[in-house]
């Protein structure tokens, strides 16, 4: 990845659940056309790894990553499929070691101050804050900025078009993760034009 950080690719990282691998490429093209290059495909479906592989092969302007990475096997499989970054909902020493050894950028998930401190101790300063809204949202992250200014976050989980600007206004937030630009009916109906429009709206957030 030529970009120095996943957090700086775009203000919003779409969190994508792919049920049908045939949707992966047109969906990714719609997101990229709308200005969202970084795409997190979650490992929640049997189609996920094939979707990552298809996007990596056929959408050169996309920076495709794997989400819901929870094991060293997930790490290995995702990188082999072409994932250019990794995102986990939480972390353990075993998982962190695997992500560090993967050769690609990663965002381990945290939801408590102690987890943030532990990651900083391990030399990791960029992380996912999850589940953002349920774990305290904007006020929580704002409170962390004082004692832990070196930590930067991508809040994900319950973030919406209306709440995203409040997160992005925080100095310790590099981007947000969300799925509001991928409404289920638009994906089911293969309405890629609508997804592109919603992606462009998200890409314009600051």
Structural description of this entry:
With 206 residues, the protein is an alpha/beta fold. It is built from 9 helices and 9 strands. The protein has helices spanning 24-33, 48-58, 72-81, 93-100, 113-121, 137-145, 164-168, 184-188, 192-203; strands spanning 12-16, 38-42, 63-67, 86-87, 106-107, 109-110, 126-129, 152-155, 176-178. A 4-stranded parallel β-sheet has the order 3-2-1-9. Helix 4 (93-100) links the parallel strand 4 and strand 5 (106-107). The longest helix has 12 residues, at 192-203. The chain starts with 11 loop residues before the first strand and ends with a helix.
Query: What is the distance, rounded to the nearest whole angstrom, between the alpha carbons of the first and last residues?
Result: 23 Å
How confident is the prediction overall: mean pLDDT?
96
- What is the count of helical runs? 9
Instruction: List low-confidence stretches.
Output: none
In this structure, how is the largest beta sheet organized? Answer: 4 strands, parallel
Looking across the biggest beta sheet, what order are the strands in? Answer: 3-2-1-9
Helix content bin: 25-40%
In what range is the share of β-strand residues? 15-25%
Q: Please compute the radius of gyration using only Cα atoms.
A: 16 Å
Summing up helix and strand content along with how strands pair, one would put the structural category as alpha/beta
How many β strands by DSSP? 9
Shape: globular
N-to-C order of helices and strands: EHEHEHEHEEHEHEHEHH
């Amino acid at each position: 990845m030529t970009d120095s950080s996943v957090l700086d690719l775009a203000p919003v990282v779409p969190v994508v659940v792919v049920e049908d691998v045939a949707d992966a490429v047109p969906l990714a093209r719609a997101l990229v056309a709308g200005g969202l290059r970084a795409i997190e495909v979650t490992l929640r479906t049997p189609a996920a790894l094939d979707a990552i592989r298809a996007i990596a092969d056929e959408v050169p302007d996309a920076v495709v990553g794997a989400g819901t990475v929870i094991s060293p096997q997930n790490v290995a499989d995702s990188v082999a499929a072409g994932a250019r970054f990794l995102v986990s909902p939480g972390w353990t020493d075993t998982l962190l070691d695997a992500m560090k050894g993967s050769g690609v950028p990663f965002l381990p998930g945290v939801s408590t101050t102690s987890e943030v401190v532990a990651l900083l101790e391990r030399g990791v300063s960029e992380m996912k804050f999850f589940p953002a809204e349920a774990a305290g949202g904007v006020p929580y992250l704002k409170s962390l900025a004082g004692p832990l200014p070196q930590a930067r976050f991508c809040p994900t989980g319950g973030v919406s078009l209306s709440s995203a600007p409040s997160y992005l206004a925080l100095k310790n937030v590099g981007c947000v993760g969300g799925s509001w630009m991928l409404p289920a009916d638009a994906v089911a109906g293969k309405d890629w034009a609508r997804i592109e429009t919603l992606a462009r709206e998200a890409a314009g957030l600051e």
